[in-house]
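Possible regression after last week's pipeline update?

I re-ran a chain I had predicted before the update to compare outputs. Posting the input and the new output here so someone can diff against the archived version. Not blocking, just want to make sure nothing changed silently.
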Amino acid sequence: MMMKNGENKNKISYTLLRVVWKLFEADRKSRFYGTDKELFEAEIHMIKAIKDNEGIHVTGLAQLLGVTKGAVSQIIMKLQKKGMIIKETDPNNLSRLVLKLTSTGEIAYSNHEKLHQAFDDLVNDTLKDASDENVEFLGAFLSSLENNIDYFGDIE
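New output (post-update):
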Protein backbone atom coordinates (compact mmCIF):
# COMPACT_ATOMS: atom_id res chain seq x y z
CA MET A 1 0.00 0.00 0.00
CA MET A 2 1.39 3.41 -0.98
CA MET A 3 1.72 6.08 1.65
CA LYS A 4 -0.22 9.28 1.08
CA ASN A 5 1.84 12.38 0.37
CA GLY A 6 0.81 14.04 3.66
CA GLU A 7 1.78 10.95 5.67
CA ASN A 8 5.12 10.83 3.89
CA LYS A 9 5.76 14.51 4.69
CA ASN A 10 4.94 13.89 8.36
CA LYS A 11 7.33 10.94 8.36
CA ILE A 12 10.04 13.19 6.90
CA SER A 13 9.30 15.82 9.55
CA TYR A 14 9.70 13.33 12.40
CA THR A 15 12.83 11.80 10.87
CA LEU A 16 14.33 15.28 10.50
CA LEU A 17 13.55 16.06 14.14
CA ARG A 18 15.29 12.84 15.23
CA VAL A 19 18.34 13.67 13.09
CA VAL A 20 18.49 17.21 14.48
CA TRP A 21 18.23 15.87 18.02
CA LYS A 22 21.04 13.35 17.42
CA LEU A 23 23.24 16.11 15.97
CA PHE A 24 22.43 18.36 18.92
CA GLU A 25 23.30 15.60 21.39
CA ALA A 26 26.55 14.78 19.55
CA ASP A 27 27.57 18.45 19.46
CA ARG A 28 26.82 18.96 23.18
CA LYS A 29 29.19 16.19 24.25
CA SER A 30 32.46 17.25 25.75
CA ARG A 31 35.50 15.82 23.98
CA PHE A 32 39.25 15.85 24.38
CA TYR A 33 40.05 16.60 20.72
CA GLY A 34 43.39 14.82 20.92
CA THR A 35 44.50 16.58 24.11
CA ASP A 36 44.44 15.66 27.80
CA LYS A 37 41.94 18.44 28.57
CA GLU A 38 38.20 18.03 28.27
CA LEU A 39 36.60 20.73 26.12
CA PHE A 40 32.96 21.70 26.00
CA GLU A 41 31.04 22.90 22.96
CA ALA A 42 31.39 26.62 23.76
CA GLU A 43 35.12 26.18 24.40
CA ILE A 44 35.94 24.39 21.14
CA HIS A 45 33.88 26.90 19.18
CA MET A 46 35.80 29.71 20.89
CA ILE A 47 39.06 27.99 19.90
CA LYS A 48 37.81 27.79 16.31
CA ALA A 49 36.82 31.47 16.29
CA ILE A 50 40.24 32.48 17.64
CA LYS A 51 42.07 30.37 15.06
CA ASP A 52 39.89 31.51 12.17
CA ASN A 53 40.32 35.18 13.18
CA GLU A 54 44.02 35.35 13.99
CA GLY A 55 44.91 38.22 16.34
CA ILE A 56 41.34 38.82 17.53
CA HIS A 57 40.69 40.38 20.94
CA VAL A 58 37.93 39.81 23.52
CA THR A 59 35.69 42.63 22.25
CA GLY A 60 36.04 41.50 18.63
CA LEU A 61 35.31 37.92 19.64
CA ALA A 62 32.18 38.98 21.54
CA GLN A 63 30.95 40.92 18.52
CA LEU A 64 31.74 38.06 16.15
CA LEU A 65 29.92 35.49 18.28
CA GLY A 66 27.06 37.75 19.33
CA VAL A 67 27.68 37.29 23.05
CA THR A 68 28.78 39.56 25.90
CA LYS A 69 32.40 40.39 26.65
CA GLY A 70 31.82 38.83 30.07
CA ALA A 71 30.78 35.52 28.50
CA VAL A 72 33.85 35.54 26.26
CA SER A 73 36.10 36.43 29.20
CA GLN A 74 34.79 33.51 31.27
CA ILE A 75 35.48 31.00 28.50
CA ILE A 76 38.87 32.61 27.78
CA MET A 77 39.88 32.17 31.44
CA LYS A 78 38.91 28.47 31.30
CA LEU A 79 40.83 28.00 28.06
CA GLN A 80 43.91 29.72 29.53
CA LYS A 81 43.79 27.41 32.58
CA LYS A 82 43.55 24.43 30.21
CA GLY A 83 46.60 25.68 28.30
CA MET A 84 44.69 26.17 25.05
CA ILE A 85 45.18 29.90 24.51
CA ILE A 86 47.44 32.75 25.50
CA LYS A 87 46.95 36.50 25.57
CA GLU A 88 49.60 38.69 23.95
CA THR A 89 49.92 42.46 23.68
CA ASP A 90 48.56 43.73 20.37
CA PRO A 91 51.52 45.27 18.51
CA ASN A 92 49.10 47.74 16.87
CA ASN A 93 47.45 48.78 20.15
CA LEU A 94 49.60 48.27 23.26
CA SER A 95 46.60 48.66 25.59
CA ARG A 96 44.81 45.69 24.03
CA LEU A 97 45.47 41.95 24.27
CA VAL A 98 45.04 39.58 21.35
CA LEU A 99 44.20 35.90 21.70
CA LYS A 100 46.30 33.12 20.20
CA LEU A 101 46.20 29.35 20.35
CA THR A 102 48.95 27.42 22.09
CA SER A 103 50.28 24.23 20.50
CA THR A 104 47.69 22.31 22.57
CA GLY A 105 44.96 24.64 21.31
CA GLU A 106 46.19 24.03 17.75
CA ILE A 107 45.85 20.26 18.30
CA ALA A 108 42.30 20.69 19.60
CA TYR A 109 41.46 22.93 16.64
CA SER A 110 42.89 20.46 14.16
CA ASN A 111 40.97 17.53 15.66
CA HIS A 112 37.76 19.59 15.72
CA GLU A 113 38.26 20.28 12.01
CA LYS A 114 38.75 16.53 11.44
CA LEU A 115 35.43 15.90 13.20
CA HIS A 116 33.72 18.35 10.82
CA GLN A 117 35.45 16.69 7.86
CA ALA A 118 34.17 13.31 9.03
CA PHE A 119 30.63 14.75 9.08
CA ASP A 120 31.13 16.19 5.58
CA ASP A 121 32.34 12.75 4.45
CA LEU A 122 29.26 11.11 6.00
CA VAL A 123 26.93 13.49 4.15
CA ASN A 124 28.85 13.08 0.89
CA ASP A 125 28.84 9.30 1.23
CA THR A 126 25.12 9.28 2.01
CA LEU A 127 24.45 11.37 -1.11
CA LYS A 128 26.91 9.58 -3.40
CA ASP A 129 24.17 7.89 -5.46
CA ALA A 130 21.78 10.84 -5.45
CA SER A 131 21.05 12.60 -8.72
CA ASP A 132 22.13 16.20 -9.22
CA GLU A 133 18.44 17.18 -9.14
CA ASN A 134 17.92 15.42 -5.79
CA VAL A 135 21.01 17.05 -4.28
CA GLU A 136 19.85 20.44 -5.58
CA PHE A 137 16.36 19.85 -4.13
CA LEU A 138 17.77 18.78 -0.76
CA GLY A 139 20.02 21.83 -0.63
CA ALA A 140 17.11 24.14 -1.45
CA PHE A 141 14.88 22.37 1.09
CA LEU A 142 17.44 22.69 3.90
CA SER A 143 18.17 26.34 3.03
CA SER A 144 14.47 27.16 3.07
CA LEU A 145 14.04 25.34 6.37
CA GLU A 146 17.02 27.18 7.86
CA ASN A 147 15.67 30.55 6.67
CA ASN A 148 12.20 29.89 8.12
CA ILE A 149 13.09 28.03 11.32
CA ASP A 150 13.26 31.22 13.40
CA TYR A 151 9.48 31.56 13.11
CA PHE A 152 8.97 28.06 14.48
CA GLY A 153 9.52 29.23 18.06
CA ASP A 154 6.77 31.84 17.69
CA ILE A 155 4.07 29.14 17.60
CA GLU A 156 2.03 29.12 20.81
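Follow-up from reviewer: compared with the archived run. Helices lie at 5-28, 41-52, 58-65, 69-81, 103-126, 132-148. Marking as no regression found.
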